[in-house]
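Ticket #4471: structure output looks truncated?

Reporter: J.K.
Steps to reproduce: submitted the chain below (355 residues) through the standard prediction queue, then opened the result file.
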Amino acid sequence: MREFYHENREKIDRFLFILIVAVVFYLFFTVFFRWLSPFFFGLIIALILGPLVRFLVNKLNFRRWIASLLCLLLFIALFSSLGAWLVNTLVRQISSFMESAPVHAEEISERLHDANVWIQRYTEFLPEGWYIPSIEEMAPALLGIFLSDGMRETGLRTLGSVPDFLINIVLALVSAYFFMSDGKKIYEFCKSSTPKWILRQMRQTRKGLERAMSGYFKAQGILMVMNGVIGVVGLLFLGNQYALLLGLLFAILDFLPILGPAIVLIPWALISIAMGNMHQAIGLLVIYAIMTIARQVLQPKILGDQMGAHPLASLMSIFIGFRIFGILGFIIGPALLMIFIAIRETNSEPQVMEE
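Returned output as attached by the reporter:
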């Protein structure tokens, strides 16, 4: 058995490395993510701010902890400003709606009356025994469903999750600071705790993985810019004076598969419908539809070109990742594909890697 292992050591180690990576990804995002998600997002924030931290340290001779703190405060200020602007805009929209509520109530009443007339008109053509309830009869039933125990429990559960959400944000920001300020210490600790054969595999795949990761983030950058431009053009067409700022926000949100631009566009469209501004509501929904279709159609091609994979492989990684991991699979699937590409490149150039 030992002779067989020594003869095929590289192939066996490479296979085990792939298997371990796949299992770790699966367990992390399906089992442990709910407990480790703040630290995962903290690492993402640290990676995003890393180049700016290195610039302050290497070019401007800042101490690393000061550079890390300044970059984190800048990050918090940027997103706090965007959040405050969004909340302020939402409050103004709701206030405007409440002021014009009597007018909207009269419009809704007229539309309900028209709907009742339409229902009664077509009730005459139904077979005997068939009956369509009027709006007045359906309203209490719909209201009862909305106020049912299930809806109340959902609302209470949502309110109860707010403290957890705030705690997770604080933990993510604090962990991001430590990842930036003590990154080398954390790296050395992880390195000393990892088996040597795994480190060897990681060293061999490092160049290919860096190339694939660079391609992945370039692809995401292209997609973010694309959807940002779509947002700006669409909002300019609707006559929105904040089109440029909102386009930037859409580009940033586009990187987050769980949220995305939908977290702004969908509620905004619903508020527009409630205020009777159907032109704006339809325009916002069209913008969101174009963003979604453009990303889904072009993402496999752009990812494939930037990462050195066939577009079909990129499409399969996205689909399989979604099936296994859910929404996060849109990130995890391509990430696993990056690792497989790096390992394939290592396998195709064994002599170069061994040297």
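Triage note (M.O.): checked the attachment and the full token line is present. The two ends are 27 Å apart (CA to CA).
Status: closed, working as intended.
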